[in-house]
Specification:
187 residues, two-stranded parallel sheet, alpha/beta
Length: 187
């Protein structure tokens, strides 16, 4: 799977929010129920989160993240098709391209892009990520940026651990462990 990126700053989003609609849908991933948000124009994934409480809270969280956009349920099951492409075992040999829309600061986006280069099924430390982006003293800022990632699995923040073995995850440790186990069993 090849991941490509589009980015939008908070300022640009405020100016251009009316240029796209967000479709959302739910998907039963191999490691738990997720809510996915995509743009209506180019089908870029801009949200991939676990349903921790219930579906209504998950939709509210999406709306809080993209407060100026019209958010509607996916009427044509486009999200299901995208997710099937991502998780289909038959696609292991095919190179699928997934487009992500990242909204954040330049630093956050730099960190998130770096995470994509971490090999599947492996883990590294926050310090390693700081070194990857040539900011070795920015470990705390890296950890904060990782905590703000809202595209789970595809931007693999689950592959990052504290150097002392600490194991945090925005959606809860059970999801992190489930994803790492899933990745380890895909061989």
């Amino acid at each position: 799977m090849t991941i490509t990126f589009q980015t939008v700053s908070s300022e640009r989003y405020k100016a251009d929010h009316d240029k796209f609609k967000i479709y959302y849908g739910f998907y039963e991933a191999p490691f738990g129920r997720c809510i996915i948000g995509i743009t209506d124009t180019d089908k870029a994934i801009l949200h991939f989160a676990f349903v921790v409480n219930n579906d209504e809270v998950a939709v509210e969280d999406l709306q809080l993240e993209w407060p100026l956009s019209e958010i509607v349920e996916d009427p044509n099951r486009m999200i299901n098709n995208i997710m099937e492409d991502i998780f289909s075992p038959s696609n292991k040999k095919e190179t699928k391209s997934i487009l992500l829309l990242l909204k954040g600061t330049d630093f956050q986006i730099e960190v998130w892009k770096a995470l994509v280069s971490i090999p599947e099924g492996t883990t590294i430390t926050y310090e390693n990520v700081a070194q990857m982006i040539d900011k070795p003293k920015a470990t705390r800022a890296v950890a904060n940026a990782i905590g703000k990632n809202r595209i789970a699995y595809l931007i693999p923040c689950h592959r990052v651990m504290g150097k002392n073995g600490s194991n945090k995850y925005s959606w809860g440790i059970k999801y992190k462990q489930s994803i790492l186990s899933y990745e380890g069993s895909k061989d």
